[in-house]
Every structure is written in C-alpha cells, then in structure tokens.
Write a structure and sequence with these properties.
405 residues, alpha+beta, Acetylcholine Binding Protein, Chain: A, Methane Monooxygenase Hydroxylase, Chain G, domain 1, 2 domains, eleven-stranded mixed beta sheet, two-stranded antiparallel ribbon, rod-shaped, Neuro_actylchol_rec, Neurotrans-gated_channel_TM, membrane
C-alpha cells in the first residue's frame, strides 16, 4: 500500500502542470519504432490482403516526465495503457490498414514504461489486416508483396519524425503458411507531400513466394494426363467414331472442371496468367483430336464411296464383257455365212466373164405387182473389169460393223 501511494505521488508530481497538447520539444520529436511479429495467419488472393499479429513499440523522449530528481529507488515505472490518455503521444497509425485492433485477452494488451531520464516506451499488441500487391501473371509461380505503412496521423514531419530501430523487425517464430512461404522483408522510409505539409512515413514490406506444389498435383498433372488420355483415340479403329467423340468430349469437360475449381480461389484478373496458357494449350490439344477425328471420318467416307463406285463399275464391265463374248460367238457364224455368199457371187461373175459377155443387160422386174404394163425396164451397166474386181474382193479384209442379235 505504501508503494502504491508513493507511485501515485510520483505520477501526480510528474503530471502537475502537464499539457498534453504541447510537443515535448519545440524542434520536433524523433519517434523510434520497432516490431515483433508473432505470426502471419492468412493471405487471401480474393481480397488481396494478409493478416498478422505483432507487438508494436514506440520510443520517444519527453523531459517533462523525467523523475530522476525525485530520488526514488527505481529506474523505470511501468504503467497501464490508460496512462496514454494523460500524456502526449505521437498518434501513429497504420495508414494503409483495412482493419486493426488491439488484443483484449483478458484485458487490453498495452503498456507504457517511463524511464528516469524521460524516455517513454509505449507498446501495443495488434491484429492488423493490410493490403498486398499481387501480380498473378506468373500464377502459380508468382510472389506477393504485403506492406505496412506507419504514419503520424496528427503531426507533420516538422513535428514528428519516424525512424526504425537498429533492429527494426523480429520474427518471434517461423512463419508457416499452407500456400505461401516468407522469403524476406525490408524496411523503408519516405516523406509524402500532402496539401498541408509533409508527413513522415515508415514502411515494412513482406515478400511471400507461392508454394506451387498444390497446383502441380491439382492442375498440371491432371490436365497432362487428361490430354494424354485424349490421344488414346488415335489407336482406335476408324469405325469407332462414337468412342472417340465420347473420349474427346469427356476430356474437355474434365479440363474445364479442373480449371474452374482453381479459378474459384482467385480474383477476376483481366490479364492472362501462366496457368491460363497451360489450360488453353491443353484444351487446344484435345480439340485438335476432335478435328482429327472429323477429318479422318470424312476421308474414310470418301474412300468408301470410291470403293463402292469402283466395285459397281467392275461389275458393270464384267457384265458387258460377258454379253460381248456371247454376241461374239453368234457374230462369227454370221460372218461365215456372209463370206460364203460373197464367194458364190464372185464365182458367178467369173462364169459370166468366161462366157464373153462384155456388157450385161440386167432385167429388173418391177416390185409393184399392181402395174398393168408388162414392159421391162432395162438398165445398161458400165463396162467392168472382172479380174480387177475379183482381185479387190479377194484382197479386201471383210469386217462386220454391225450385227443384229
């Protein structure tokens, strides 16, 4: 009880005539900040942010809180977070956070330490959700950069200047995430121009590399096997068109389903990703198998029509040959008869020549039996050299130009 009364007297003595609106120094205050990261809990591609728990510390000097002259047996005093409302604070904030809160388990996780030389150390345990810069063009072989930006909300760079501690960030445990791996971090400092002046900024960036093993086994290997399965149709018989079509369409549906299951966990990016190129290439390969099937079926159809046509022509030609052979036998007999008639006529001409008839009057009777006149018409033939005629008739090659069957 005695210590409590003495501490209360000390605090009352320090805060006597203390104005929280005045800066500790007219030349501005240097604020040293540091972080102790407890863990990074989640990274979301859909919302483009990450969550982390860390302890945030601010250190500055305020000579109005120097209690060395009070000669107490302590070099520092630890106070609850409510004490912040009674002293000046730099009012730093995470300017780019989407949500931040102070842990309250079981009470608010804040404290302030006052040192005898006027140094103030303020500490918070925070849970913050902040944005990440994502470029998914190389997905799933991409990396993500997440950043926290600290800034004094009320004081410009002439009044408050932010600096990182010599050891600005400490990872209290190894970060283990199912989809990402922390590959590094870095701190930075800049000044940003606002309409009412310049503000100091302290930034820290976390760089994560995606673990792509999940996507290899869930996307790349299955689509590869699906494409190879679609090639099995090349070994099918040409007549198994229905089996080939079923295999090709099933492969297309399988690749589309696998691609859709991955896209459900990604934002709607308008640019082409590495995974898009792979899936589109797989779809093109499978589609080419269907095009090959259509071409082969059409060529096979033409070939069958050609074979059917040639078979019909061969049958027709064979029938014509059979008929020709049959007609040829009957025509030979007709030729022999004609040759016999020609030979008899030639012999008759030779007999007339031997009889000495130089000219011959041929009496031709009229075919019209109804004529009343019994007169005969006489035609006078020209003189014929029977020998020459016989030679010509004998040397002539008699052919049958038309045979009536």
């Amino acid at each position: 009880m005695k210590n409590t009364i003495n501490l209360g007297h000390i605090i009352n003595a320090l805060l006597n005539d203390y104005d929280i609106h005045l800066l500790p120094s007219n030349e501005g205050v240097n604020i040293t900040i540091e972080m102790h990261v407890q863990g990074i809990t989640a990274i979301s591609e859909l919302t483009g942010d990450f969550e982390l728990d860390f302890m945030y510390s601010e250190i500055w000097e305020d000579q109005r809180l120097n209690f060395k002259q009070l000669n107490i047996c302590a070099t520092n005093i630890t106070l609850k977070g409510e004490f912040r409302k009674r002293i000046w604070t730099p009012e730093t904030c995470i300017i780019n956070s989407r949500h931040s809160s102070i842990h309250t388990s079981p009470s608010e996780n804040t404290f302030i330490i006052l040192y005898e030389n006027g140094i103030v150390w303020s500490n918070f345990r925070l849970k913050v959700r902040a944005p990440c810069k994502m470029d998914l063009r190389m997905f799933p072989f991409d990396s993500i950069v997440c950043k926290l930006t600290f800034e004094s909300y009320s004081f410009n760079a002439d009044e408050v200047r932010l600096f990182w501690h010599e050891k600005p960030l400490t990872m209290m445990e190894i970060v283990e995430l199912p989809d990402f791996e922390l590959i590094g971090w870095r701190t930075d400092h800049e000044r940003l121009q606002y309409p009412n002046g310049e503000w100091d900024r302290a930034m820290v960036e976390f760089k994560f590399a995606r673990r792509y093993g999940f996507y290899l086994f869930q996307s790349y290997f299955p689509t590869s096997l699906t494409v190879i399965s679609s090639w099995v149709g090349f070994f099918f018989d040409v007549r198994a068109a229905s089996a080939k079509i079923t295999l090709g369409v099933s492969s297309l549906l399988a690749v589309s389903f696998q691609f859709g299951s991955v896209l459900r966990h990604l934002p709607r990016a308008s640019y082409i990703k590495c995974l898009d190129v792979w899936v589109i290439s797989s779809i093109i390969f499978i589609f080419c198998t269907l095009v090959e099937l259509a071409i082969i079926c059409r060529l096979n159809h033409y070939e069958r029509e050609k074979q059917i046509g040639s078979h019909a022509v061969n049958q027709w030609i064979n029938q014509i040959r059979k008929r020709k052979n049959q007609n040829g036998n009957s025509s030979d007999s007709n030729v022999k008869v004609l040759r016999r008639q020609n030979i008899s006529s030639i012999m008759n001409l030779e007999k007339l020549h031997k009889a000495g008839n130089a000219t011959t009057d041929i009496d031709i009777a009229s075919d019209n039996k109804e004529e009343t006149s019994n007169e005969h018409r006489f035609f006078k033939w020209p003189t014929i050299d029977i020998r020459k005629l016989l030679v010509q008739l004998r040397d002539r090659d008699w052919t049958i130009t038309a045979v009536q069957v």
